[in-house]
Specification:
Blueprint lengths: L5 E14 L16 E4 L4 E6 L9 E10 L10 H11 L5 E4 L4 E6 L3 H10 L3 E3 L1
Parallel strand pairs: 1-7
Antiparallel strand pairs: 1-3, 1-4, 2-3, 4-6, 5-6
Helix pairs in contact: 1-2
Length: 128
């Protein structure tokens, strides 16, 4: 199923950081904008606005954040895929993350214009 979405381009650059399992959550992580912690058996990943991340932290910088503005129940299929499919077809790599209410996805800043074009061509509305 393909959904036409209202997608917000968040105005800040983001960083995706990597920590070892069992690391303490750093005090600089919480703050304005989207931020999250995820952990697996291999690593702990933190995402937040790049301006908060110290230069000593292993990070991938320069990511741009998109937020799906619609709220769908968990049983509605294809919501995130409706945004990611056109990006994949355009050759844009994505880092995705979900909250209880919606989905976020990140693209490298160097791919921002390509991503915006692909999303609009697919019929999505982009807002800032």
């Amino acid at each position: 199923m393909s959904h036409k979405l209202l997608i917000r381009l968040v105005d800040a650059e983001y960083a995706i950081t990597r920590f070892t399992i069992g690391s303490a959550i750093p005090e600089w992580l919480p703050g304005p904008g989207f931020w999250t912690v995820s952990s697996s058996r291999e690593e702990m990943t933190l995402v937040c606005r790049a301006a908060r991340v110290p230069s000593s932290v292993q990070s991938s910088l320069g990511w741009r954040c998109f937020r799906i503005e619609h709220h769908f129940s968990f049983d509605v299929p294809g919501v995130l895929s409706s945004a990611l499919r056109p990006l994949s077809a355009a050759g844009v790599g994505v880092f995705a993350n979900s909250t209880f209410s919606t989905d976020y996805f990140f693209v490298a800043g160097s791919d921002l214009e390509t991503a915006l074009h692909a999303l609009k061509e697919h019929g999505h509305e982009i807002t800032t």
